[in-house]
């Protein structure tokens, strides 16, 4: 209710208005016909204009009073789905009985009414007395008065809520608020159940098991209408004990370091992994895959900006051709006029045969500092994730290993979204940067 009070002169003036039904110092009531006219207005502005037309606008009765009336009448109209709701509108404290106007009753009728009321109260007290032990048991069991009453009523007991609340010295409004909370929790639990199933399906999608960032990216792609953030995913994963494997530190520092006869180059890249354009800076390295105590070697080249694997080769031996084949692939693809190719100081990359071929192709060679694997961190990270995510232990031949690696490279480039690449796959991010 608005705090704006009407003066005596205003009351006399507005009471003459044909659209006003009743007015006093605090409130003003309008006729049903005027209420129906206001309900038909589409916007609050249009409703205010109607009030202005009858001379009871913002300056006369206050904008707050008009706004409250408009939205209250609108809400009641929508609930009843017709305009007849206005004729049955009631405000303020309810009467003792919806069907009885106590003040209009005669003395004899008032006595009869009070006798009936007293009789009803006695019956309620008898029922309450009968089920009091059950209520007390539920309250002790649940350690909560409202929860105990709720559980007792759910057992099918028809008890009077006001009597029960009065006996346990709690508010009836508090009980209804508790019921609303229970209802909201059940609804939230149902929504969470559907979300949990989605998260579980994505989590177990691959052998490595997705973390919360990758789950969020997958959900945004597969379920764009699902309103969820990373905090909720982390909470659900913790509750459901969805534990992601954390990779242990590789005990091997890398393959053999360059000998004194081999030539090393400066660290031109200097860990500037995120600056530049696609195909300007490429990282390369070699790793191994152990199957049945036998080693297979994988050499790969990764675009520094987009994360795309632009070339790779798998062999059973670790001869210089393993690295030279990567250079040949890069030359065939004609990625850029001048590429900065960064590697560690492994024996392949310090080999005269390797750096001479690089110089002939017009590439600029850059190398990590001695014993600093972090200088080539994105490449090392890629190999670590790949080994976690592919199943190669059951492979029995080189051709099988190559097929598993080829499938993963397609998945990595075209399907695996990355948090630091605008939640895109490497190829999507490359096209995004190049405006394709």
Overall description:
The protein is of the alpha/beta class and 436 residues long. The protein is built from 16 helices and seven strands. The strands form two sheets. It has a five-stranded mixed beta sheet with strand order 5-4-3-6-7, with helices on both faces. The chain has a two-stranded antiparallel ribbon with strand order 1-2. Helix 7 (145-154) packs across helix 9 (172-203). The protein is elongated. 22% of the residues are buried. Residues 93-98 and 250-259 have low confidence and may be disordered.
Keywords:
436 residues; alpha/beta; five-stranded mixed sheet
What order do the helices and strands come in, and which of them pair?
Elements lengths: L7 H8 L4 E4 L4 E3 L1 H8 L4 H10 L4 H4 L1 H18 L26 H36 L2 H10 L6 H7 L4 H32 L8 H11 L7 H10 L41 E11 L2 E10 L5 E7 L5 H13 L6 E4 L8 H10 L2 E4 L9 H13 L8 H17 L11 H9 L2
Parallel strand pairs: 3-6, 6-7
Antiparallel strand pairs: 1-2, 3-4, 4-5
Helix pairs in contact: 3-5, 6-7, 7-9, 10-11, 12-13
Structural class: alpha/beta
**Spatial order of the strands in the main sheet?**
5-4-3-6-7
Average pLDDT metric: 80
How many H/I helices? 16
Biggest beta sheet summary: 5 strands, mixed
Which value, in Å, is the CA radius of gyration? 39 Å
Strand content: 5-15%
Overall helicity: 40-55%
What's the assembly state of these chains?
single chain
**N→C terminal distance:** 60 Å
Shape: elongated
Spans of 5+ residues with little confidence (pLDDT < 50)?
93-98, 250-259
- How many strands? 7
- In N-to-C order, the SSE pattern is HEEHHHHHHHHHHEEEHEHEHHH
């Amino acid at each position: 209710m608005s705090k704006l009070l009407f003066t005596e002169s205003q009351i006399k003036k507005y009471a003459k208005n044909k659209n006003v039904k009743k007015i006093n110092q605090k409130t003003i009531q309008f006729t049903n016909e005027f209420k129906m006219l206001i309900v038909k207005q589409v916007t609050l502005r249009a409703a205010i204009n109607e009030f202005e037309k009858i001379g009871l606008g913002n300056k006369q009765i206050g904008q707050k009073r008009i706004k409250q009336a408009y939205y209250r009448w609108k809400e009641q109209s929508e609930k009843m789905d017709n305009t007849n709701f206005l004729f049955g509108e009631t405000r303020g404290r309810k009467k003792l009985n919806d069907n009885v106007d106590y003040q209009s009753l005669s003395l004899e009728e008032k006595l009869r009414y009070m006798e009936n009321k007293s009789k009803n109260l006695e019956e309620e007290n008898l029922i309450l007395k009968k089920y009091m032990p059950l209520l007390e048991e539920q309250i002790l069991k649940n350690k909560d008065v409202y929860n105990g009453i709720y559980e007792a009523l759910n057992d099918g007991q028809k008890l009077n809520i006001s009597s029960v609340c009065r006996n346990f010295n709690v508010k009836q409004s508090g009980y209804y608020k508790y019921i609303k909370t229970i209802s909201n929790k059940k609804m939230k639990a149902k929504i969470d159940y559907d979300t949990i199933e989605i998260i579980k399906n994505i989590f177990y999608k691959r052998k490595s098991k997705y973390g919360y960032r990758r789950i969020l990216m997958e959900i945004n792609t597969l379920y764009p209408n699902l309103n969820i953030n990373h905090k909720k995913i982390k909470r659900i994963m913790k509750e459901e004990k969805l534990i992601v494997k954390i990779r242990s530190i590789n005990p091997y520092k890398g393959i053999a370091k360059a000998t004194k006869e081999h030539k090393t180059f400066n660290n031109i890249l200097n860990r500037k992994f995120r600056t530049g354009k696609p195909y300007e800076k490429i990282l390369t390295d070699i790793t191994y895959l152990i199957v049945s105590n036998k080693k297979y070697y994988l050499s790969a080249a990764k675009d520094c900006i987009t994360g795309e694997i632009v070339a790779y080769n798998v062999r059973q031996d670790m001869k210089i051709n393993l690295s030279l084949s990567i250079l040949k692939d890069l030359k065939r693809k004609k990625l850029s006029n001048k590429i900065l190719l960064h590697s560690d100081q492994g024996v392949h990359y310090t080999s005269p045969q390797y750096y001479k071929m690089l110089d002939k192709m017009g590439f600029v060679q850059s190398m990590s500092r001695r014993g600093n694997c972090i200088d080539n961190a994105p490449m090392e990270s890629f190999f670590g994730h790949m080994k976690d995510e592919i199943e190669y232990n059951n492979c029995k031949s080189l051709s099988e290993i190559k097929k598993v690696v080829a499938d993963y490279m397609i998945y990595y480039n075209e399907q695996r979204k990355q948090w630091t690449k605008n939640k895109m796959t490497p190829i999507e991010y490359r096209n995004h940067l190049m405006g394709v």
